[in-house]
């Protein structure tokens, strides 16, 4: 079973076919960065059209059992998420509405301060806000998973503690291995995995040691060491693959509508666009490389299967439905 | 089994308890008249709160099987609908979005011309519009039932013919019995029931012979005669109960935001408010009176059971899911 914990591709029939070639049973896709509620609904509509147009390649994913259906019918189940809480605007009632529409992950912040928490690019981290505490309870209640990939450290640790259900960092790597701002320090990973949460390893070059030149061996050895530290059952893949996106999209991700100036985020003035993916993971057809790389570290077949998808599958099964108290 | 094909009450714990006292297993409730998409979402949110607050009395209804669950657990399943297509605005993609949120009925018009069809108060009836034809196909595809209760005759007959699935008139009576503008002529009822559709009998006094003074005997005899003409399996109840609503609400229903002048609709300047309900049906505790009245006409127990809920149950089961071609 192969499950990718985060992608934001420029979707097309070509990519849907590559998902099938790569044996990808399920993906969590970002459908909103800075979109408000109505704009997010338009993005759900866009996916409804794709599901109608390509019924043999993809299907809507709502529950872990949809992954079983996808496997039985040779399709990829697509699960939805937001990298910012902008789709709920200032309305806690939209948490359940968006879950009903199919949202299964929501980041409490995207780099900046939000109404709920502090993003990883702010100078100060005030932790979870008043509204944030209410929204965490509501996300717990309905089964919308809290994702802290782009949040600041204190906010992330507080979210893990406040949440009555496991949370996730869908796409990042350990800061020890590659000290990027977006990579996560030991205390953060420990807080998330300690509450039963998941950590998805990113292949976005800015998160890799050596960036685009990072070797498969280095990436897989890092995963093996992370498993030793935090427990292999909490680990999965979250490639952050942004295939076929024009550079205008990475600018939208960073700048949205919140500034009139350019913000380069993880890039720089001399390299503002999307970085080149490493040679061993250019697109969805290359999941086999990661699987082989993990085997080469000496992991058992079961351990590799867990990281490639089994752990996400269990996590989806436990966390997408209503909270049982 | 007791199912009401339309209500628009001023919902409260009192009314939810009366639904239980009246043994009502399911109701179709109107949640939008003139509301746009975002306002309609707020109405879904309001119901989510009620489901959370009164889990022992009511539950969200999406499929006929939810009525079985409601009966097993002593609750009322609440199904949602709109009396106007305003929630989809000019965006056909919202048909599926709103179905996903739980909408199961949508009128193509409410008295006036809409983007889709002509309402029963217009002087001219142009039939189904260009967008209307597209929306009928989309409603058929996803399982959102076309309701023509407030539409003009030609538009209704065309909708019945264009639709590949049965349609409904959820709340009206035969024009032959009581010649109100909103009651339906023979050709209209024949078109709807002839395509497998449902006709729900209204107890809104403006639709009754003798209005608030209409007798239970007259109402039930009329149902028996309608069954003889069109087939009993196509008939149900759609009380149009607007319990506990202030008169400002009937003004909103009639006037919305489309005029600055008062429109009295079925009322009049001297009687602009909600009319008094007949003595034998004041609220949801009185469904037993209708059941007794139907038995008194000489109908068999099976026939009465069909009208009281069995026919809606079958119709819900066949028409709320995706179209099978």
Overview of the molecule:
The structure is a homodimer of 325-residue chains. Chain A has 325 residues and is an alpha/beta fold. Chain A has one domain: TIM Barrel (Alpha-Beta Barrel), CATH 3.20.20.140. In chain A, 40% of the residues lie in helices and 13% in strands. Chain A contains eleven helices and nine strands. In chain A, the strands form two sheets. In chain A, strands 1, 2, 3, 4, 5 and 6 form a six-stranded parallel β-sheet that branches. In chain A, helix 8 crosses helix 10 (287-296). Chain A is globular. In chain A, 49% of the residues are buried. The mean pLDDT of chain A is 97. The A-B interface holds A 37-38, 41-42, 44-45, 48-49, 91, 93-94, 96-97, 100-102 and B 37-38, 41-42, 44-45, 48-49, 91, 93-94, 96-97, 100-102.
Query: Biggest chain pair contact, residues each?
Result: A-B, 16 and 16 residues
Q: Look at the structure and name the CATH superfamily of chain A.
A: Metal-dependent hydrolases
CATH topology of chain A: TIM Barrel
Order of helices and strands of chain A: EHEHEHEHEHEHEHEHEHHH
Structural class of the helices, strands and pairings of chain A?
alpha/beta
CATH architecture of chain A: Alpha-Beta Barrel
- Count all strands of chain A and give the number: 9
* Main sheet record of chain A: 6 strands, parallel
- The CATH class designation of chain A is Alpha Beta
Query: Tally the helices of chain A: what do you get?
Result: 11
Gross morphology of chain A is: globular
Q: What is the assembly state of the chains in this entry? A: homodimer
Q: What percent of the residues of chain A sit in helical stretches (DSSP H or I)?
A: 25-40%
InterPro entries (chains A, B): Metal_Hydrolase, Pept_M19
GO molecular function (chains A, B): metallodipeptidase activity
Protein name (chains A, B): Peptidase M19
Organism (chains A, B): Aliiroseovarius crassostreae
């Amino acid at each position: 079973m192969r499950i990718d914990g985060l992608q934001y591709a420029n979707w097309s029939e070509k990519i849907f076919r590559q998902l099938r070639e790569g044996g990808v049973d399920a993906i969590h896709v970002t459908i909103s960065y800075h979109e408000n509620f109505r704009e997010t609904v338009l993005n759900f509509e866009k996916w409804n059209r794709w599901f109608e147009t390509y019924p043999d390649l993809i299907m809507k994913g709502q529950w872990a059992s949809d992954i079983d259906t996808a496997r039985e019918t040779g399709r990829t189940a697509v699960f939805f998420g937001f990298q910012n809480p902008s789709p709920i605007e200032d309305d806690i009632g939209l948490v359940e509405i968006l879950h009903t529409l199919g949202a299964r992950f929501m980041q409490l912040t995207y780099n900046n301060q939000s109404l709920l928490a502090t993003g990883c690019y702010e100078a100060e981290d005030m932790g979870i806000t008043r509204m944030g505490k209410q929204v965490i309870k509501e996300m717990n209640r309905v089964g919308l998973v809290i994702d802290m990939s782009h949040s600041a450290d204190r906010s992330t640790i507080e979210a893990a503690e406040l949440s009555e259900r496991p949370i996730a960092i869908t796409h990042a790597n350990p800061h020890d291995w590659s000290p990027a701002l977006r990579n996560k320090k030991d205390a953060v990973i420990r807080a998330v995995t300690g509450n039963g949460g998941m950590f998805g390893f990113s292949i976005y070059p800015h998160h890799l040691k050596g960036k685009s030149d990072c070797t498969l061996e280095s990436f897989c050895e890092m995963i093996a060491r992370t498993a030793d530290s935090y427990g292999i059952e909490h680990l999965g893949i979250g490639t952050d693959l942004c295939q076929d996106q024009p550079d205008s999209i990475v600018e939208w991700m960073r700048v949205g509508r919140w500034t009139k100036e350019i913000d380069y985020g993880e890039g720089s003035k001399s390299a503002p666009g999307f970085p080149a993916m490493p040679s061993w993971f250019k697109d969805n057809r290359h999941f086999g490389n990661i699987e082989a790389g993990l085997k080469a570290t000496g992991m058992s077949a079961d351990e590799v299967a867990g990281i490639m998808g089994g752990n996400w599958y269990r996590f989806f099964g436990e966390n997408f439905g209503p909270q049982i108290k």
